[in-house]
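name: query_chain
kind: protein
chains: 1
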Amino acid sequence: MLIQIVCVFLYILAAGWVGSRLFHHQGPNPKLMAIPAFLALTAHLYLLFEGMIQGEGTNMSIMNVASLIAWLVTFTMTLASFSFATAILMPVVFGFAALIVLLSAVIPDVHMMQIALKPALIIHITLALLAYGCLSIAVLYAVQLAYINSRLKHKKMSLMHSSLPPLMTVETIFFKLLITGTVLLTLSLLSGFVFLDNMLGTEQAHKTILSVIAWLVFCITAMGHQKWGWRGRPVITATFIGAFLLTLAYFGSRFVRDVLLG
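structure:
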């Protein structure tokens, strides 16, 4: 419990430091932000290993899976902050990671799986986690893209201008993430249909159907951009819809079954 408290405190410290520097004319310094951020990520990784790797198998509970995705997103965005202007997103990223760690402490949950004995299942789960993590980061960039578009539209770029990257840079990164995440989601679904027997079973059918619908949304959005130059609000809205459907697929039923009913 002490490590969880320290981890949450470090995430909040990193979020508060970035937030306090957003209005500074020089913007946040990624090197200083990295100190509490990487300490929090280290503590978070320790908690993940302690919570997931157990003698009788792997605890793939809903909170452990959410915590793992939060760690992947936070780690990636922290590294990206050294090369790209992501300061406006970091308080949200750190705050979400802190919330997940806190919820993991107060909502104990167990869902043991013998994934070490099933290489095909490991491949499927790994692809699914990478796809969700990549598309989650794409959503964060979509939020930033929508914000910059709004500021440009209303000609209010003076506020926090030093912390905002150029519109085209954000848009380029966003579409690369969207396409990469869609490819990973495609591979995840294919691996599920090839290696697993219950993708359309009673307990998995709704998850599979929602994942396929989300995949269609992402595919159409990415194809529309590549072929017809789609961009702006329609693309951002479609990305939010796809991410919402994918979240329902990954966590919706398990949250109701394991947390609310359990």
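note: The CA atoms of residues 165 and 196 lie 43 Å apart.
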